[in-house]
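Reopening: Diguanylate phosphodiesterase still failing for me.
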Amino acid sequence: MECHSCLMLEIIYKVKLKGTENLSMMQNIVNHLKRRNLWVKVEDEHLEIKESGIREFLDFCEVHMETEKIFFRIDNLPWNPLRDIQQYIQAGWIDEVIRKKLITCHFQPIVDRKENIYAYELLARFQHEDGSTIYPNEIFTAAKKRGRLYALDRLCRLTAVQHSTKIDTIAFINFIPTSIYSPEFCLKSTISLANQLGINPNRFVFEVVETEQVEDLDHLKNILTYYRDKGFQYALDDVGEGFSTIDTLAHLQPRYMKLDMKYVQGVAFDPHKQQTAQSFLEKAIEIGSTPLAEGVETREDFNWLKQIGYELFQGYLFGKPAATPIGFKEVDS
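Support: Ran it again with your exact input. Result attached.
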């Protein structure tokens, strides 16, 4: 199985023409691009054009066609009006970030009830070639536009596994389940790197990002089962009051469940948040999962959560993400 996202091949834009005038120009477009030695293909009543030829196509459209009746998409993503295509072209910098691996990891501690470090979450940090910072919302938005989410997610996972050699505690590593279409194929490189580094699989906790937004639970279970069969652990991130039923959570069997920070911050003084936190705790205990409160910033919230039975905690109260693990001497890699 191969896809443009996985292999970082040149983007191919699918272009759909509407209207009699535009449709009558299809062969003219093909001839025009081929005369300039640019790749173009007619497929299922739409055009496929590589990115290297898309600007020439746009110039042709401006002169000869009704651009408001032209639509495009990448892979099987939704169709968009042609006027939006510049956003996708300008997001091309994401390809260089991925190809050149302009990424590192920061470590944020996860502590137990006595504030001893139990684990670290490894968080991806990106930068341009000039060293300037790229913020997560920028990079994931660009990756989504260009169909590069899998390639970016894979880079983040492999980088985190590599950086886990700097610590000897458990490492929480994020992944986006919607970017994985086949666990056996897509996660092979992650498993291989962990084995190559000689790291015990039970030191890794793969954390489902955006748990609440996962729609295909069967697909998610296939991924988590694959991880579990390989000896890895996994966690559900950002779980809150709206997340499914006990039956669904038990079906997924997470080793850890992370309470969304919006229910953690201010919980010591907010009855509604207290109710959600208590309900979450009961769910975790019922299915045999370890409850973890994330986003803890105040001593009051920490003490309240600890008092009712939470076991693990993460947040600025214990340390912000840092290039060097806080409160820990790095292991030589």
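The chain is about 40% helix and 20% strand. If you still see a failure, please send the error message rather than a screenshot.
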